[in-house]
């Protein structure tokens, strides 16, 4: 089963959010999902501490020397493996990328994110050359505006596509529900159905966005 | 997405993970600044666990009693032993 790696040497771009949304959506599709939390900030471990959706297993505190065997053992169980990496340029990142069937590089539509995120894209391409096999990779723009597509976002999408980089549509919109998942645990469906969960945003729209994102990722894994 | 397990048909691409391949991946990463950032362990000997043993010849219950009294007074066991020595000196030596 496929291994999906969230990679960007920049922190705060939405790697953990992407990982949580994909894990919960794939689990909702009845897949067994193993999530590897390799981020020292332990965002996914915090999310899991409030309750994991059915079908999702979490493994945390995975370092550079454990990443390859851990991915391989999880992969061997017939599960989808989602790897959330630290937001730094480390060997842990380069080793995880080498095991990926799809590398997703989340990027906010800003020049800084694009510049630092492009390091991950360049690394994927160099690993492809070194290993003599292709490693599918794509960018997803995150924390985008729900109302309008900004000029910066349009230009960035054009530049990425112009450089032959796959850009996942839809982008992940800045939704309060996405960040609140880390406070409540579980998934967006549970959040929407629980009247006691206080969210500052539209969970239904967040869920539609997450489902469309997961569908776009699924299409890239076929 | 439907609730059926469409994902069951997904396959992973075969990937070699030989030592040589991992070394090549490390080299490519290092050339781009993706370095080994594993936190280094704190140097030096780890502190010994507390045994409450003041001297090899002190019975454990005596050691524990001294440790408890030192804790109650908010001083170290060494400071308590020093006080005891002062008392001993004043009554037996001075």
Automatic annotation (TrEMBL), chain A:
Domain of life: Bacteria
Signal peptide: none
InterPro entries: CobQ/CobB/MinD/ParA_Nub-bd_dom (IPR002586), DNA_Partitioning_ATPase (IPR050678), P-loop_NTPase (IPR027417)
Occurrences of domain CobQ/CobB/MinD/ParA nucleotide binding (ranges): 4-185
Segments crossing the lipid bilayer: none
Name listed for the protein in its UniProt record: Chromosome partitioning protein
The species this protein was found in: Roseovarius azorensis
Upper classification of the organism: Bacteria, Pseudomonadati, Pseudomonadota, Alphaproteobacteria, Rhodobacterales
From TrEMBL, chain B:
Superkingdom classification of source: Bacteria
Biased composition (Basic residues): 39-48
Disordered: annotated segments: 30-53
Protein name: Chromosome partitioning protein ParB
């Amino acid at each position: 089963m496929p291994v999906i790696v969230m990679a960007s040497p920049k922190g705060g771009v939405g790697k953990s959010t992407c990982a949580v949304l994909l894990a919960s959506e794939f689990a909702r599709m009845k897949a067994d999902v193993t999530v590897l939390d390799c981020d020292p900030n332990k965002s996914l471990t915090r999310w899991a501490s409030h309750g994991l959706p059915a079908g999702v297993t979490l493994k945390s505190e995975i370092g550079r020397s454990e990443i390859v065997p851990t991915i391989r053992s999880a992969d061997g169980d017939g599960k989808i493996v989602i790897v959330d990496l630290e937001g730094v340029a480390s060997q842990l990142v380069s080793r995880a990328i080498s095991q990926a069937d799809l590398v997703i590089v989340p990027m906010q539509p800003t020049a800084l994110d694009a510049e630092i995120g492009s390091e991950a894209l360049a690394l994927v391409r160099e690993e492809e050359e070194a290993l003599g096999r292709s490693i599918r990779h794509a960018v997803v723009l995150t924390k985008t505006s729900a109302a309008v597509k900004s000029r910066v976002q349009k230009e960035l999408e054009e530049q990425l596509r112009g450089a032959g980089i796959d850009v996942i549509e839809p982008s992940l919109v800045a939704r309060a529900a996405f960040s609140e998942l880390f406070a409540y645990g579980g998934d967006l469906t549970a959040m929407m159905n629980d009247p006691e969960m206080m969210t500052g945003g539209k969970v239904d729209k967040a869920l539609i966005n997450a489902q469309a994102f997961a569908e776009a990722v699924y299409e890239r894994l076929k | 997405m439907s609730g059926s397990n469409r994902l069951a048909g997904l396959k992973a691409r075969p990937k070699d993970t030989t030592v040589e391949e991992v070394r090549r991946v490390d080299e490519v990463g290092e050339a781009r600044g993706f370095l080994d950032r594993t936190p280094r362990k704190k140097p030096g000997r780890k502190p010994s666990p507390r045994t409450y043993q003041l001297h090899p010849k002190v019975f454990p219950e005596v050691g524990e009693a001294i440790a408890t009294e030192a804790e109650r007074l908010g001083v170290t066991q060494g400071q308590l032993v020093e006080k005891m020595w002062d008392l001993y000196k004043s009554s037996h030596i001075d």
